[in-house]
Amino acid sequence: MSSKIDELKLDIEELSMLIKTAKRPKITSFLSLELRKFETALLKLTEEEKRKEGKDVGAMGDCNKAPTTNRTQPCYDVKLSTYAWDQSDKFVKIFVTLKNVHTLDKDKVVCVFDPSSMELMVKELENRNYFFRIKGFLHEINDAESYIKVKNDLVTVFLAKKKQGQKWSYLSLTEQQLKEPKKTPSIEPDEDPSSSMMNIMKKMYEEGDDEMKRTIAKVWTESRDKKDVVA
């Protein structure tokens, strides 16, 4: 167990050195994410070894108990969902409020970008690891030019627009789907009414829930049976 812990410590030390020398934001974010994985693994192994040592000491009797030591409290993961956003011609800016975030070291606040999503990670803030994710932006971003800024109790995420000057009505596709009313299928003036109705029924079937699908299937079956009787 101790050999694994030693190896992890060496890996963490080397990753930390790489982060300090990295210049590209995307590379820094990637390395920081890997560093967190190693730190989590190290914490688990350390806790397991301490628990094992505690059992061994207990078996030797109260007179041989090791002196009590302070253990590092584990960090718990917390998902952030509250934010505000604004935009300029070049950037979409996301504002995430988090008390005391400015007191952390630079490598504890990182953000990973790709053209359609982002993940903000705030590590070891008062025994909490905070995460903020958005998947499926309304439009693509330039992930290489995107970055974050940390100020008093605030993290600002700068999403570089791939198409500068393009206005974003929503931040994500999910938000657009939730807020925009669905268009009701209509019959075109020059279209065969029976064909149009069939298209509407198909669309309702594809988008409907199980109850809707059963109802439409029943209507189709009854309609077919009537046609067979007439024939």
UniProtKB/TrEMBL annotation:
GO terms for cellular component: cytoplasm; nucleus. InterPro entries: CacyBP_N, Calcyclin-binding_UBL-bridge, CS_CacyBP, CS_dom, HSP20-like_chaperone, SGS_dom, Siah-Interact_N. Residues 157-231 form the SGS domain. It comes from the Eukaryota. It is found in: Cytoplasm; Nucleus. Keywords: Acetylation, Cytoplasm, Nucleus, Phosphoprotein, Ubl conjugation pathway. PROSITE patterns: CS (PS51203), SGS (PS51048). One of its GO terms (biological process) is heart development. Residues 78-172 form the CS domain. Pfam families: CS (PF04969), Siah-Interact_N (PF09032). GO terms for molecular function: S100 protein binding; tubulin binding; ubiquitin protein ligase binding. May be involved in calcium-dependent ubiquitination and subsequent proteasomal degradation of target proteins. Probably serves as a molecular bridge in ubiquitin E3 complexes. Participates in the ubiquitin-mediated degradation of beta-catenin (CTNNB1). This is Calcyclin-binding protein. It comes from Cimex lectularius. The lineage of its organism: Eukaryota, Metazoa, Ecdysozoa, Arthropoda, Hexapoda.
